[in-house]
Design brief:
heterotrimer, A mainly alpha (about 300), B alpha/beta (about 325), C mainly alpha (about 325), A: about 300 residues, about 75% helix, B: alpha/beta, Rossmann fold, 8-stranded mixed β-sheet, 13 helices, membrane (chain C)
Chain lengths: ~300, ~325, ~325
């Protein structure tokens, strides 16, 4: 909170998009990150079309085909990236896993953002006791990391509903838990931006002209807090995907019948030392590249838009 | 021989691919015990000049060419170790905002003692005694108590006194004071200025006072340099400059002083504002704001010439001198 | 200082109240304790008698009150699986986790600080640039992949260190089983603590670098240069202390992440600590153990945060101002 910089944001929003766009073209690394991210999104969207096998097919799982190494080792071109311990084609499973991981990540961050933006706007705009209370909550929430909160809640859910029922709703529960646990980051940034914006003349002007406070909040302040939101949004997706993977790795996330990248890694871990390294390594690499691209994109946006992200 | 001589100093700021000039061909000298002032609006490059003397320009800035000599030793070519010998010990600096100048997590005593101990071999106890004596000299009450306090426990005026004391610890030859009173209350400004003046006079220390306030300058400095957009536009004895300003910019600065206006009248501001580094005008940098500007001013930049009273860089004065010369020729 | 401690205390109480509520809810609602205790072969009447005896038919508020009372007396119930008081089970595992976390933190502080400072002092140097690339890659590798990789390389491929368990321990002061005092214990500690440290290091290196660079821009650092102080004194006395202030705060916030990370590390390396115990308890639906874990971790949490704040107060002189004001 040291530097309440006035120049965090530029008040015009259409030029900002073109500003981002023209800047991103100039930076090779950012272009690469963007391409990778776009590629992942595309792959996730088209997974059912791209996957060489239908994961819902009964014959998809065939123990006869278990633990076949990738095609560049075995020259068995039926399975490009080999198969896992249950005989599933690894490429197909990874494609679907990416789809799951991305969906969970993006949905969770959407919840975080909605919750955080609303709370941040309310706290910043109303101020006083409500602000104090909400920020105190944010403090406490933030001091438990999202991962820890998620682990605890998922553990409780799992023991509460039993394994079978839990696995049915795993995806929704994961999205909710990750989504509800890290709103303070958004809320604080928005609140700080609102406090800075509140000083500016156009908010006063809008108030003088007789617009209601809700209208002022959403029509004037929200567009101007877009840059920091965009930065946190990008980085938080990466964090949410990591969180999901970690939870699945612990066995608290997606079941092995419907594996996300984390669940795949977890499954592969058991076979890592028996020589079937690909089951664990290939999903890991997929995950790391995705997160790296998201982080690079987030870093670049932060450097380029230069908003102060309020973490402490 | 001059104690300090700056000649043809060019300082540039590297902003992405562009190298923007911040100081252009600055030359001046300073004698032992002399007090000079550098005056101009903010953005004129006064502080950059102050910092470039001890090679402390902030990051994108660098010395492009020219020389700064202290006792005939070139400062711009020195390595860090040699510079550390000069800084503090020969040339000391006082900064603008005393609230920001002292390290918040170290005590006053730690910050003063380290200055002595980094330049002289002396044990802690002696250093402490010298420090307390100097704190006493700058009229700080109960210096023993202050010694163990942190900066945030002191007022702004008190901190500036501590900084002056720290500057005095090593008996430097030159003190560069960058707007030392700007951040302080008006009542304290005069006290600090008096203190600074007395100290320089008593110890024979030369002073380079950087200020935007001609009122302050007239009380302290013997000689004044007026800067505009990185160049010195007028130089001469302070009294002459205040009573008979030659350059239109100096005239404008003087007219803008509140004392020069009758009560109730508008202040005589100079129209327009200082150009930024990126949009420096061609010709004389002052011409867009100058009431006497001609086509020549827009194209060529004037050179620095002696007008009989002070040295000025302005075509108007140049022409006037030419005319007097011609008149004298004709009379012969 | 007093206000500061008071605020801490209130915050701690709120946190503990929330945790105890959650723990209570788990213990009360999860599964049927009667069934857990007596199995299937007991008649309905006998069960009801037992329910009555256990106070399960009382109002929720009375039950919560009783739960709190017992908790304050150090009685959090008996583990279904171990058939021992849960606190004993947990405290048996505390040393392992604390030693792991402590070593990891030590490694982070000892490695991340100099690296961050170095990168801040010479941001253009090739070492700093490579460091920034490595840390940004490191930030993108989830801790469990780091741990798997470490295990694979050091334990399977090169056979340098054991991959699971805690090895031999020695008893210190009669109450602490420590692995720090013999070679076998230390070699077992190596991989888990290193994995944990590597997972935390990138973010701290980057934070220290960013903060340090900001501090180096400040006026007081420039003033220090103008006094002709040596570079070492400026970097390590003037700048580092100011750099550490925000880092300490962020370090406190990361305590929760550390707990989550110990759970992951302990699971992978089968480190017999609290995290491993917790995951075991989850898979066995050992509810008293789960709820006791939450309370113990919550308590540790509050203690760590208080310690972090105290350290902050010691380093930052402006915090002490509060005590003058009172």
């Amino acid at each position: 909170m040291k530097h309440l910089k006035k120049d965090i944001l530029h008040p015009i929003s259409d030029t900002r998009m073109s500003h981002i766009w023209s800047g991103i073209i100039g930076d090779k690394l950012a272009v690469l990150a963007l391409i990778i991210f776009a590629f992942y999104c595309l792959v996730a969207l088209l997974a059912p079309l791209l996957a060489p096998f239908d994961v819902n097919d009964v014959h998809f799982m065939d123990l006869l085909n278990a633990e076949i190494a990738p095609s560049w080792i075995t020259h068995d071109y039926r399975f490009l990236l080999g198969t896992d311990a249950q005989g599933r084609d690894l490429l197909s499973v990874i494609l679907y896993g990416t789809r799951l991981s991305l969906t969970i990540g993006i949905c969770a961050v959407l919840i975080q953002a909605t919750l955080g933006i609303c709370i941040g706007l309310v706290a910043g705009y109303l101020g006083g006791r409500i602000d104090n209370f909400l920020m105190r909550c944010a403090d406490i929430q933030l001091s438990f990391s999202n991962m820890m909160v998620a682990i605890v809640f998922l553990a409780i859910f799992q023991s509460l509903f039993g394994m079978a029922l839990y696995q049915q709703f795993a995806m929704i529960i994961l999205i909710l838990v990750i989504g509800l646990s890290e709103w303070p980051l958004f809320a604080r940034t928005i609140r700080a931006s609102v406090l800075a914006e509140k000083q500016q003349e156009y908010v006063d002007a809008a108030r003088v002209m007789g617009f209601g406070s809700k209208r002022i909040m959403f029509r004037h302040i929200l567009p101007n807090t877009l840059s920091p939101i965009l930065v946190i949004f990008t980085i938080q997706i990466a964090n949410a995907i990591i969180a999901e993977a970690a939870l699945s790795f612990l066995g608290l996330g997606m079941p092995s019948s419907e594996p996300s990248l984390g669940a795949l890694i977890s499954e592969g871990f058991a076979y890592m030392f028996s020589g079937s390294w690909w089951i664990c390594v290939l999903p890991s690499v997929t995950l790391i590249i995705l997160i790296l691209a998201m982080n690079l994109l987030g870093d670049w946006l932060r450097d380029h838009l230069n908003p102060k992200v309020y973490k402490d | 021989m001059n104690l300090l001589s700056v000649s043809h100093l060019h300082v540039n700021f590297q902003v992405k691919q562009h190298s923007l000039p911040a100081l252009i061909d600055v030359s001046f000298t300073l004698n032992r015990g002399e007090r000079i002032a550098i005056v101009g609006e903010s953005g004129a490059g006064k502080s950059v000049l102050g910092f470039s003397i001890v090679n402390l320009i902030s990051k994108p800035g660098y010395i492009k060419s020219g020389s700064v000599k202290l006792d005939n030793k070139e400062l711009t070519k020195m390595n860090l170790r040699q510079l550390q010998e000069v800084r503090g010990k020969r040339i000391a600096m006082i900064f603008q905002d005393p609230m920001m100048t002292l390290n918040p997590v170290l005590t006053i005593g730690q910050q003063l003692v380290e200055t002595i101990r980094s330049h002289t071999k002396i044990n802690y106890k002696d250093a402490r005694n010298i420090t307390i004596e100097k704190l006493h000299n700058v009229q700080i009450s109960s210096p023993e108590k202050r010694f163990d306090q942190y900066p945030h426990e002191l007022s702004g005026g008190m901190r500036q006194r501590v900084i002056i004391a720290s500057v005095l610890l090593l008996n430097p030859d030159i003190i560069i004071a960058d707007e030392p009173t700007t951040a302080l209350d008006v009542t304290i400004q005069a006290e600090i200025l008096q203190l600074l003046l007395a100290i320089c006079r008593d110890n024979g220390v030369a002073l380079v006072l950087i200020s935007h306030d001609l009122g302050v300058v007239s009380k302290v400095a013997e000689r004044t340099l007026v800067m505009y957009a990185g160049q010195i536009v007028e130089e001469g004895p302070t009294l002459e400059i205040i009573n008979d300003p030659q350059h239109p910019y100096t005239q404008g600065l003087l007219n803008a002083l509140p004392q020069m206006t009758l009560p109730g009248q508008r202040l005589n501001q100079i129209k327009g504002s200082m150009p930024s580094l990126t949009e420096r005008p061609t010709g004389c940098a002052f011409h867009p704001r100058c009431p006497y500007a001609t086509d020549k001013c827009r194209q060529e930049s004037p050179s620095f010439i002696y007008s009989g009273v002070s040295s000025v860089a302005c075509f108007m004065i140049e022409d006037m001198i030419d005319e007097t010369d011609r008149d004298e020729d004709e009379q012969l | 200082m007093l206000i500061f401690l008071l605020r801490r205390l209130i915050q701690a109480c709120v946190v503990m109240a929330i945790i105890s509520l959650i723990s209570f809810a788990i213990q009360d609602k999860l599964g049927d304790p009667v069934q857990q205790m007596v199995g299937m072969s007991v008649s309905v009447e006998e069960r009801n008698a037992l329910r009555e005896e256990l106070g399960l038919n009382d109002s929720l508020l009375t039950q919560y009150g009783r739960f709190l009372q017992n908790a304050l007396q150090g009685d959090l119930g008996t583990s279904y699986y171990y058939k021992e008081p849960v606190l004993d089970v947990i405290f048996d595992k505390v040393p392992a986790t604390l030693e792991l976390a402590f070593c990891a933190i030590l490694l982070v502080v000892l490695i991340a600080t100099p690296l961050g400072v170095l990168a801040a002092i010479n941001p253009k140097h090739w070492v700093s640039r490579i460091l920034m690339v490595i840390t940004s890659i490191g930030l993108s590798i989830p801790i469990f992949i780091v741990a798997i990789l470490m295990m694979y390389l050091f334990s399977i491929e090169w056979n340098l260190a054991p991959s699971f368990g805690r090895g031999q321990t020695t008893e210190v002061f009669g109450l602490w089983h420590s692995g720090l005092f013999n070679q076998d214990g230390l070699s077992h500690l190596l991989l888990p603590s290193l994995s944990l440290a590597i997972a935390l290091m990138p973010i701290f290196t980057r934070l220290i670098r960013a903060e340090m660079m900001e501090v180096l821009q400040s006026e007081y650092i420039r003033f220090a240069w103008s006094k002709g102080l040596s570079s070492n004194r400026i970097y390590f006395i003037h700048a580092l202390k100011n750099t550490m202030l925000p880092i300490i705060t962020i370090g406190g916030i990361q305590a929760g992440t550390l707990v989550a990370y110990t759970i992951l590390t302990e699971t992978i390396f089968q480190w017999p600590g609290m995290g491993f115990l917790f995951m075991d308890a989850v898979s066995r639906v050992d509810t008293p153990l789960i709820s006791a874990y939450l309370i113990v971790v919550g308590g540790m949490f509050v203690v760590t945060n208080t310690i972090v704040d105290l350290i902050y107060g010691l380093v930052n002189p402006t915090v002490r101002l509060a005590s003058h004001g009172l």
